[in-house]
Amino acid sequence: MAQKKKKKSDPNNRVVAENRKARHDYEFGEVTEAGLQLTGTEVKSLRTGKANIAESYASYENGEIVLINAHIPEYDQGNRFNHEPRRPRKLLLHKREIAKMSQAVQRDGMTIVPLKLYFNDKGIAKLAVAVARGKKNYDKRQDAKKRDWQRDKARLMRDRG
């Protein structure tokens, strides 16, 4: 019998930061994977796993999409070449994707929300962004009711059979 090899968790392919509150506050449209234009100390700081994208958003400026207010802390051994923690960072997208997102923001009043910052299989930092529409309070309450009902229904089905 051949033994199955346990796959070790790849240090390159892991989530660094996640925007969990966005699922509560927004309805997502299309989700896109974007690269980030980073400096060396930013990448080293991300590899330590200390980033925060909870209060960040992306906006269309001068023909490009920029990530604003994402916090990547300074690298400890970075000395004078260190980066500014909350600087605007350019998102690397194709022209068509930029055009589609900017039209959705301008025409439909939607927002570009970062969902997750991670390293892909090749060890490159990527950001999952979505074009989203903000939820109203009644939408949030409706979603909570639906979630509670699904939980209760699953519990009833489990108990009955």
From TrEMBL:
<dbReference type="GO" id="GO:0070929">
    <property type="term" value="P:trans-translation"/>
</dbReference>
<feature type="region of interest" description="Disordered">
    <location>
        <begin position="136"/>
        <end position="161"/>
    </location>
</feature>
<dbReference type="Pfam" id="PF01668">
    <property type="entry name" value="SmpB"/>
</dbReference>
<comment type="similarity">
    <text>Belongs to the SmpB family.</text>
</comment>
<keyword id="KW-0963">Cytoplasm</keyword>
<dbReference type="GO" id="GO:0003723">
    <property type="term" value="F:RNA binding"/>
</dbReference>
<dbReference type="InterPro" id="IPR023620">
    <property type="entry name" value="SmpB"/>
</dbReference>
<keyword id="KW-0694">RNA-binding</keyword>
<protein>
    <recommendedName>
        <fullName>SsrA-binding protein</fullName>
    </recommendedName>
</protein>
<dbReference type="GO" id="GO:0005829">
    <property type="term" value="C:cytosol"/>
</dbReference>
<feature type="region of interest" description="Disordered">
    <location>
        <begin position="1"/>
        <end position="22"/>
    </location>
</feature>
<dbReference type="GO" id="GO:0070930">
    <property type="term" value="P:trans-translation-dependent protein tagging"/>
</dbReference>
<dbReference type="InterPro" id="IPR020081">
    <property type="entry name" value="SsrA-bd_prot_CS"/>
</dbReference>
<comment type="function">
    <text>Required for rescue of stalled ribosomes mediated by trans-translation. Binds to transfer-messenger RNA (tmRNA), required for stable association of tmRNA with ribosomes. tmRNA and SmpB together mimic tRNA shape, replacing the anticodon stem-loop with SmpB. tmRNA is encoded by the ssrA gene; the 2 termini fold to resemble tRNA(Ala) and it encodes a 'tag peptide', a short internal open reading frame. During trans-translation Ala-aminoacylated tmRNA acts like a tRNA, entering the A-site of stalled ribosomes, displacing the stalled mRNA.</text>
</comment>
<dbReference type="InterPro" id="IPR000037">
    <property type="entry name" value="SsrA-bd_prot"/>
</dbReference>
